[in-house]
Amino acid sequence: MKRPIAISDSANFYVSAERIFDPTLKNVPVIVLSNNDGCAVARSDEAKALGIRMGEPLHLIRDKIAAHGVRVFSSNYTLYGDISRRVVEVYEDFTPNVEIYSIDECFLDFTGFKDRVAHARAMRSEVLQRIGVPVRVGIASSKTLAKCANDVAKKNPIFAGVLDMMDEALADLILPMVPVGDIWGVGRQTQKKLHGVGIHTAAELRDMPLRQARAVGTVVLERTILELQGEACLSFDEVEPQRKGMAVTRSSGTPMTDFDTLFQAITAHATRAAEKLRRHGLVAGTLTVFYHTNRHRPDRPQYSGSRSTRMMPMSSDTFDLVEAARRCAQAAWPKAHVGTFGFTKAGVLLDDLVRLEDRPQTLFDVARPKSAALMTALDQVNDRFGKKTMVLASEGMQRPWQLRADHRSPRYTTRMSDLPVVR
DNA sequence: TCTGGGGTCCTAGGACCC
DNA sequence: TCTGGGGTCCTAGGACCC
Prior knowledge:
- There is one protein chain.
- The protein is an alpha+beta fold.
- 36% of the residues lie in helices and 21% in strands.
- The protein is built from 14 helices and 15 strands.
- The protein has helices at 13-20, 45-49, 62-68, 77-94, 116-130, 143-155, 168-174, 188-196, 202-206, 210-216, 219-228, 259-279, 318-331, 372-385, and strands at 5-10, 30-33, 40-43, 71-73, 98-102, 105-109, 135-140, 162-164, 246-256, 282-293, 304-315, 343-351, 354-355, 391-393, 403-405.
- Helix 4 runs antiparallel to helix 5, helix 10 packs across helix 11 and helix 12 runs antiparallel to helix 13.
- The relative contact order is 0.08.
- The model is unreliable at 362-374 and 385-423 (pLDDT under 50).
- It binds a DNA duplex through residues 33-39, 41, 55-60, 101-105, 184-190, 217-220, 243-251, 253, 286, 288, 290, 294, 296, 304, 306-308, 310, 345, 347, 349, 388, 390, 406-409, 411.
C-alpha cells in the first residue's frame, strides 16, 4: 500500500503575506523585491498578468510599475517567517506528520484519510479563514509526483486548488500533458539534454530506461524517474535537519578591479558571516571565498575564483574568519590579466557547521611534528589510541599545543580532554 | 625503492531549488 | 547604468593512506 504524500504551498506567498495586513492590496498588481531590492521575487496574479517575470530586474519594469500602479514592497522576512509558522500550525491540526520544506511549502503525511480531497479542501479553507493565505494541495505516492499534482492544480482552476494523483489511471492521463521541464529536479540543463534524446513530457521521462537516464544525467535523474513511477525515493522527514552551511554574498554595482577593494567586500561578508554563526550558536569547519565577473556581459573577459580553507580550530570568531577569508581571496586572485577583470559578485560560504557546544576541542595539522617533546606526546597518543591512528600536531603557534587524531582512516574524533596535554 | 590495488578524503565546480 | 540571496546534493580528479 503506497503512502499518500501531500504538498501544500501558498500562492504568491510573500504577496499573500503582505495582503493580510493591507486590504487595499487585494485585486491589484503587487510585487515583492529581493534582498537588495534588485528584482521581483514574488508577484500577485495581477502582476503576472502584466508580464512581470520571476526574478526580473526592477530597472526593467519601472515603466510598467508606473503605468499600472503596481504596488512594490521590499521583502520582510521576519513577517513571512511568522506567517509561515502560523500556516504550519493549521497543517498540524490536519495531520500529525508535517515536513517543512521551505518558507511556503510543507509535505504532509495523508496516510489514513478516507476522502483525501475533502480533507485537503477542509484544510485549505481553514488556512484561508484563520491566516488569510490561499494554498494549493497536490497528493501522490511520491514527493515528485505530489509536486507535479500541486503544479497542475495551480495552473488549472478546474481542480479548485486540490489534485489527488494517487490513482495511477489519473496520473497516466495527466503526465503526458506535463512538460518535462516542469518536473521537480529537472532544470534548464537537464531539460535541454532530455529534449536532445527526444523526451519532452513527464510521461516520457517516467518511461525512460534508467540506464539511459544515468548516461544523460546523474543518480538524481534516476531517482526522479522512480519517483514519477510512484516509488517514494525521497524520504519524508519530519525533524528539521541541522543546517550544513551558510552564505553571505552580494553583488556590487561597480566592478571591483583591485584586490584591496575586493578584500573590503570580502571582509564585510566574513564579518557578517561570523555574526550570523554566533547568532545561531554555530562554529564553521570550512570557509570558502568566491568572486566572479559579470556573467551578464559574456562579451567581456570572465574570471571566477574560489578557494576553501579549513578553520583550525573551528570558529565563529570574526578575526579568524576574516583572516581565513583573506588567505582564500588572495589564493583565488588571478595571476594575470588582473586589470581586465572587474568583479561584480563576491561571497563567503561557511560549511561543516556544528553547534558551538559540540565543537571538537582539537586542532588540525599545521606542521609536521619536530620537537622531542612533541614526539613524546605523539607516542603517548599512539599508545593510547593504537598505531593505526595517525596523529598530527601543531607547534609554533600562539596557542598551547594541541593534538588531534587524524580525520583520515581510521576515523577517530576525540575531545581535547581525552588527549594528553603537551607543553 | 618500485609497483599496484583498494580505499577515503578533499576541493572545485555544476545543477538545481526556493 | 541597473539584472538576488541562501541553500542542498552530486561528481571528477587529485592527494593520500594502507
